[in-house]
Structures are given as structure tokens and as C-alpha cells.
Design goal:
The structure is a homodimer of 513-residue chains. By secondary structure, chain A is an alpha/beta fold. Chain A has 15 helices and 17 strands. Chains A and B meet through strand 1, strand 2, helix 3, helix 5 and helix 6 of A and strand 1, strand 2, helix 3, helix 5 and helix 6 of B.
Chain lengths: 513, 513
């Protein structure tokens, strides 16, 4: 916290400051408990909670085979694989007698502690007090579930939410389901990493002149929702200097920042045309410290002097989406309101998913444990090592794809440019109309292009479909989004790139004819 | 369907009939897709969906040790245990490449088909068309999540919901979070199985005289929420003749019936004072057919000629609560609206939980498979056999507890009666004030009783805390709820019963003094 700031450090001041941000519906929400949370001595027989004894569960044990290397074909079992065993009594801190039982809505303590520790080490909120007690983390059932809970807590019919003009559109569904209104904010679509992402000047103008601007019929925005790193669909990341400006705007105009960050761990060093497959992740110089400090974009939390940032992370991209497991970081007051909603809706995320994630990370740590570090450090380091390997694979896939796209006849004929991504799992390809006027009916033209692409055997997402407002973004929506995440291997990415080139070429040949 | 009925059998007629039941907020809900659901030929390379290739997942395989007998201490592995192996490619119909991936919001097809088949065999809706296409099942994240989704879909500030006067109070939290109002409906608190549960005469009077009744300031109820079998907290079940009357009232006054049935599989044959530990589940006469036909209370679905019943089931009590896995049965129109909400909130329940449940049931079936039945039949039969064993254990626990309670000095002194439950996991103990006037300040008296109980080393739930409206139920709320689910073994239940007896006795000794 900066000296002399009036940042809210305790619950009472957080409450005072953030109460006005709550949605109208929050007041109807409270769990009607019929039980007491009181502590009972061990010799009291518990006949209150309707929990089945764990010996009613048909699963006696779960054994996991864990790969310490993604795309692992190493036959040397002891080296690149490990195992985890879970049964009714073990591991002692999270046996399945616990993970298969009813459990705390906020998440099972061992995993929750791991996650909070991770946030502390990588993106500790500036407003945090010394004991980390004025902010917290709760687990949730995937980022979509997190978004829902956050927006339900802070949005209602009176709320205006700003979202990057292109986005993961289901986020809009979540906002609009509360009755709130979404407005698009301008992006700089460029691969210049110092300029890309949210257009800060435009945003400043919009907010400073709200009462005479295009949305003057709406309330001033209370929330900015941003995928600030490896943005979906653009693959762009808001540079640090812009984050600082945006944070200042948030302070000046008093809005919350909901930072959705599913892709941030997959940072991409710049593509090197002289050595396209160069991959700094494979260098022995790349330590965990360097990855954390030089590669990762720091969260808005690290600028958050006054507790207005809500951060969403997920295990979907770095572990597996089917877990439906994510987490939310926020100041203690707002997070309690989000938890109140969870208490009366979903309750806890799947205990089996939590147990699998915790046991996997623990097993990774145990298999690499050296006596010189604490187990807590070992858990963190093992997990970051895993994440770095994921990031490395994605970076390689990005390189392979860019190289193959640049080698297509269509690219070399100037039909498209590629917005080299700075993080994540997406690449956008922007059409270059060249001597042709950009058509008026862009969506229809893009639909025609899509047909050419499918005929050539490749399926991408059309940019205009990810616009918050198609009219607003009409001029910029002539792009295609492709993901490097799902392909089987390099060859498939190369073949797909070839097909994309052919499809675009045939489209322009038709436009020309 | 009865001849000449005007039951809505197709989607259009369902829509016409049930559109007016939707909450105001439903219209704001729609998933903004940026992808097409179009079918692509196999040779098209998928670069659209942001799904990680399954080889990015750190878990390569999962092995389950499955007990076919609850509280299994059988050392003969081959007999009472079995195993299931899941890896990226197997089982072929639900490998972890599928269950750990993004998946359909409504649930993974193999488990979903199993569940629909189960509903078809046990509680097929009367309104169903020949192809079972006008109703369906979706999976959900536990019954609390199901409730939330159902109430969010059918309730808003204008809605009145009827709930049994004593209930699982978090259900009220869900209703009230939508802005809707809850009113209590009278119950017959008796262990006479032909009379227990919802007081139908009182309900008839209330509804027939709404405009002059105590709730005339509220809209007529649009929903009845009922735990009709093995009710929480009372352990009572609404008998068939009452279900018929209630259904007729639902038709006459046009309300929906939300039937929450987490406990129904644990049916209790009547306690036999001559032979307290008699357990018909242990009889060799007890076939699956007899259990299904003579033991289980049939769902309101089996009376549902006009598609107004929404049924909630869960895997929490018959598998494990930590899975967070449940399902919702309803007509196709209402279920689609519930699914629309799931699409923009939680999305699918945990894929790992789904995979574990499916693989467990499959493994149970494989280990008992005879060539004379189809695999579908084997899955169903194995699962019902498991459920019957769970029910048997609960029935035994109920017998042990009743016997021990009846043997206490306090019972024999007439301090309390026991409302022998007809299903579920709860028993209620009702105080008998005898020569004393029932006190005016019941809640305070019950709190004092609670202190005596805890002092004696046993924790129960106080009945008044589970009242929808304490004033309304004041006269009936002098009971304690105990669960037979969590205790370690018979001895603990016997010891707990003894302590309950002592606690009540000390309480009355104090009242007397």
C-alpha cells in the first residue's frame, strides 16, 4: 500500500466502500441454516448433519497415474510418471472420506491453502494486510461458474459493464442475465506488444465525457470485465503501462475490474522469423524465477491499492476442463457475498475434482522433493514446472503455426496478416483486402469465406461472431480465430495452416472474379 | 395418459401451457455462442473450439477400487470388490479424454442414458409419449444446484411457493433469493403411514379459499416444493392416496410440483416391536421387482398426466455427496429453460464425478454379468442391488436406534414419543410434556434441552429451526431430529440413544423442579 493512501484494509472499511457495488438481489440471499457451526468436543456423537458415513461410499480407493510431462511418451516410468493413491484414510490431509463427503462451499482446505499461497507468490494484492486476512480465495466450478457468481453479486438492471469489443461472448450472457447492460470498449488490434489490447485513450475519453457520450442513457459503468492476458479471441495482452492507466481510470471513475485470466500462464516470447522454431522455454537458462518475473504478465491485483480487482483463474487450461474447477480472488467483503451466493446455489465444487488436482500436484512434488526446500515450496515449484511445460508446448505450437501460415501462397500474396499472439491459445488472422474495397457486408463475406475454409477441410471461428456489438466493431471484424490447443500434433497444425491459406486464396479468387 | 385427456404431448403444447410459469428473468437468458453446432465431416481439422488436446492433461489413468457391499470388510477380494480402469482411451464410451474435456452441459451421454433409463423403469411419467421424447433428464451439481436452477427458472418476485411447514431450510433460501415468497403448509405429524405428511384437507381449504385466507395479499401459489418421501426432517412419506389428491389440487389450482427426492430409495418397512432387528431387506424373498414395486413410493411423475411435475434426484445419499452430482426430470419445455440457465452459469457438472459414477456402476454390472440379460439390464440391476444394500443398512440402523430409544428410562417414563420414519435417514423425537403445560417459549425451552443433550455428549437438530415459519408451527416444533447416517456403527447409535434419553430426562427433571 502506498504511504498515506486511504486504502480499506479491514472488513469494516471494505464494507463501507464496496456495499454500494452490490446488486439489488444480494439482500435476498442468505443461507437458512438449521444447524449450529459451534465447535463440539470430540466425544460428542454427531447426529445432526445429514452426512452418510463414508463407508456407505462404493469407492474404496482411487489410484492416479500422473504424467509429469505433457504429451508424454517416455517409456521410462520412474522418470516422467508418478502415482497418487487416495483411500478412505489417505492422504491424511485429504482422504476420500473427506473429499467424497459434504464439504465447505469455499473449497477443501489443503487445495485452498495451496491456491492462496500461489496467488501470494505470483500476484499478491497490493492492498493486502500483513496477515493476508483482508483478501481471500474461494474455489468455484469453472470460470463460467465464477463469472456467473461474480456478476450475480455485483450486477443488476441498473449496472453498465464494459467489455473488450471482442470477447468470449458467454461472458455477455452472464452479465445480461442479471439485467445489466454491456457496452464494448475499443481495442488496439496490433501485434505491437506495447500498444495492443484495450485502447486507453478511447476509454479515457468515453469515461471523462460520459454524460455527453454515446451511452449517456445508461448509468456510468460499475464494472470492467477484461481478459487482459492472451485475450480471447485476439491473443493480445494489455501491457503494464496500460494496466496502470486503466487502474487509474478505475479509481477516478470508481469501477471494479473483473480480470478473467484463463490463459495467462501460456506466455509467448516473440516469434523469431530468423529462427521460427526457437523456443526459450527449452533453454536451460529459464528458471522458475525468470518465468514468473520476466514472462508472466502481472495481474491487476499487483496494482490494486484499493481492493477493487476481482481475479478469476481456472484449472481448465493447465489441468483439464472436465474438472470444472476454478478460483476467485477478491477482497474479503466482496468475496463473502460471492460465497453467500455459492452457499445457496452450487455449494462446493466437486470434491473428486478437488482431490484429483490436489493429489496430482502433491505427487509431482513428492517425486521431485529435495531436502533443501519445504514441502510448500516443493508443491509450488512442481506445479509451476508443469505449467511451464504446458506453456512451452503452446509456444512451440504457436511457432509451428505461424511459420506454416507465413509459408502459404495466400500469405505471400498479401491476402492476410497474422496478429502474432503474446499469450494463450488463439491466433487471429486478419484479412487484407488490398486493392479491393473492404466490403460493406462483412459478416456475409466472412460466412462465404467460412464455406471456402470448410470446403478445404478446416474450421475456425469468425471474428464478427465474437463482437460485443457487431455494428460497433464492423470495421475490425474481418478476422478468423484459430486455436492451437486441440490439434493432435505439429503436422496437423501445418496441414491446417495450408488449408487456411488455400481457403483464403480461393475466397479472394472468387471475390476478384 | 388417460383417454380423452388434453395432456400436452408435444413441445408446442408444452410451451403454450408452461410459458406462463417462467420467471421474469428467463427472457434475459441465452447463451451467446460464437461457434456453430454444425456437424463437420471427419477430415475437417477443428481449430474452432478452445479445447486443450487431452494429452495436455496430467492424469493418464484412474483406477478405482469398488466395494460392492457397503461397510465392506470382506477380505475375499474377488467376491465383494471389483475394479474399474479409466484412461485416455477407455472405456471406449467414456474415456477420460472425454470426461476431463469440456462437455455437454446436460451431462455425458453414457451416464445420462443410464439415468433416463432408470427413471423410465421406476417412475416413467404418465404424460410421456411413446418415444420418451417429451420429457428428459439433465445432470446437475447436487440437489442444491438443481433446486437453484429450478427455482430461478420458475420463480420471481410475483411467485408464491408452498413448502411443508418443516423442511430442509436451504430450499427456502433458494426460493427467497429469486424474490419469491414461501408459505408453510400443514403436515400431519404421525407415524400412521396412511395419514402422515402433507395435510390434504388443510391444503384444500387453503387453496379453495385463497382470496379470503391468511395469504390473500400474495398471488396464488404457482409451485409446491415437497420432499414427499422420507421427508427431511420428519422421515415421513406422503401416502399414495394423498399424492393423488395433491395432484388433483395441482390441476385444479394450476401449480407445479417440485418433488425433491434424495432419500426415497431408503424405504423402511414398519418396525416390529416383537422382533426389533427384523430386516426384510435381508430376506431371500426380496427381489428387485418386489423392492421396486412394493417398497418404493412412486414419484408424482407416475400420476403426472399433464407434465407439471419436476423431480429432483441425487447421487449424494446412494453414492457420495462430494461428487456434487444430481439430476432433474421434467417436461421438455421446462427442462430446456433450466438447461438454458445451466448453459450460462455452471455448465456441466464435474466430468470426473460423472466418470467415477458411470465406471463404478459399469464395473458392478460387469462383475455380475450373466449372459441372459442385456448390458443395459445388468447396469440397472447391479445399481438397484447396491441401492438395496444401502437401504438395508439404513433400515438396520433405524431398528437399532428405535430399539435403543425405546429402552431408555426417559422413554419409559413417557418423556417423548418417536415418530417412526417410513424412509430416509432421519428420526424425529417428539417431547411429551405430560402433566406439564406445553411451555409458551418453546424455542427457548428447546435451546435449554439442547444444552442438556450436548452435556450428555450428543448433538441433534432442534425441530423449530427447520420450521418455514416458527410462529405457524410453534405447537408442533417441540421435536428433535437425529440422523442415523453418520454414526460409525450400531454401538455408537445405541450409546447416542442412551445419551439422548439421559439428556431429556435431566431436562424434564429440571423443568419439574
Amino acid at each position: 500500500m502506498t504511504a498515506g493512501s486511504t486504502a480499506p484494509v479491514d472488513y469494516a472499511s471494505l464494507k463501507k466502500k464496496f456495499q454500494p457495488f452490490l446488486s439489488r438481489r444480494v439482500e435476498n440471499r442468505s443461507l437458512k441454516c438449521f444447524w449450529n457451526a459451534s465447535e463440539l468436543s470430540d466425544d460428542v456423537i454427531e447426529l445432526a448433519g445429514g452426512m452418510p458415513n463414508e463407508r456407505f461410499f462404493p469407492v474404496e480407493s482411487i489410484d492416479l497415474k500422473i504424467s509429469k510431462v505433457p504429451f508424454n511418451d517416455n517409456p521410462k516410468w520412474h522418470n516422467s510418471f508418478t502415482t497418487a493413491h487416495l483411500d478412505l484414510n489417505s492422504p491424511i490431509e485429504l482422504p476420500i472420506a473427506r473429499s467424497l463427503q459434504y464439504a465447505e462451499t469455499k473449497g477443501l482446505p489443503p487445495l485452498l491453502h495451496f491456491v492462496k499461497d500461489m496467488v501470494c507468490r505470483i500476484n499478491r494484492p497490493v492492498f493486502s494486510d500483513e496477515t493476508e486476512s483482508n483478501w481471500d480465495v474461494i474455489l468455484s466450478g469453472g470460470s463460467n461458474d465464477s463469472m456467473f457468481k461474480v456478476f450475480e453479486t455485483i450486477c443488476d438492471e441498473s449496472t453498465t459493464v464494459m467489455i473488450e469489443e471482442f470477447t468470449f461472448t458467454p461472458a455477455m450472457s452472464n452479465v445480461e442475465a442479471t439485467g445489466a447492460k454491456v457496452i464494448p470498449i475499443k481495442m488496439d488490434l496490433t501485434f505491437d506488444r506495447e500498444r495492443q489490447g484495450i485502447d486507453v485513450e478511447d476509454l479515457t475519453r468515453l469515461l471523462d465525457n460520459w454524460s455527453t457520450g454515446p451511452y449517456k442513457h445508461l448509468n456510468k459503468p460499475k464494472v470492467l470485465y477484461t481478459i487482459a492476458t492472451g485475450q480471447n479471441p485476439t491473443g493480445m495482452s494489455v501491457p503494464r503501462w496500460k494496466r496502470e492507466k486503466i487502474y487509474q481510470l478505475a479509481q477516478k471513475h470508481d469501477f471494479l475490474i473483473v480480470e478473467d485470466d484463463p490463459y495467462g500462464y501460456m506466455y509467448f516470447p516473440s516469434y523469431n522469423p530468423q529462427n521460427p522454431l526457437e523456443n526459450p522455454y527449452d533453454s536451460s537458462d529459464l528458471t522458475i524465477e525468470r518465468y514468473l518475473n520476466d514472462f508472466l504478465m502481472k495481474s491487476f491485483l499487483t496494482l490494486d491499492t484499493d481492493a477493487r480487482v476481482i481475479r478469476l483463474e481456472t484449472f481448465s487450461k493447465i489441468f483439464a476442463p472436465g474438472l470444472r474447477l476454478s478460483f476467485i480472488v477478491a477482497n474479503k467483503f466482496l468475496l463473502q457475498k460471492i460465497l453467500d451466493l455459492a452457499d445457496i446455489t452450487t455449494r462446493a465444487p466437486s470434491g473428486t475434482s478437488q482431490a484429483i488436482v490436489y493429489s496430482t500436484i502433491k505427487a509431482m512434488a513428492e517425486s521431485e522433493m529435495s531436502s533443501s526446500v519445504s514441502f510448500r515450496d516443493a508443491m509450488f515449484e512442481s506445479w509451476i514446472k508443469w505449467i511451464m511445460q504446458i506453456a512451452s508446448k503452446y509456444n512451440h505450437r504457436k511457432n509451428v503455426t505461424l511459420k506454416a501460415l507465413y509459408e502459404t501462397e495466400s500469405y505471400q500474396a498479401g491476402h492476410f496478416t497474422v496478429m502474432e499472439p503474446s499469450a494463450g491459445m488463439f491466433i487471429i488472422i486478419k484479412l487484407d483486402w488490398g486493392i479491393f474495397d473492404r466490403p460493406d457486408n462483412l459478416p456475409q463475406q466472412m460466412d462465404i469465406l467460412d464455406e471456402f475454409l470448410v470446403k478445404n477441410g478446416v474450421k475456425l471461428v469468425l471474428g464478427y461472431k465474437m463482437a460485443v456489438c457487431q455494428e460497433y466493431s464492423e470495421q475490425n471484424s474481418d478476422f478468423l480465430r484459430l486455436t492451437i490447443a486441440y490439434a493432435k500434433d505439429d503436422d496437423q497444425l501445418i496441414e491446417a495452416s495450408r488449408r487456411i491459406g488455400n481457403g483464403i486464396k480461393e475466397f479472394f479468387d472468387t471475390v476478384r472474379s
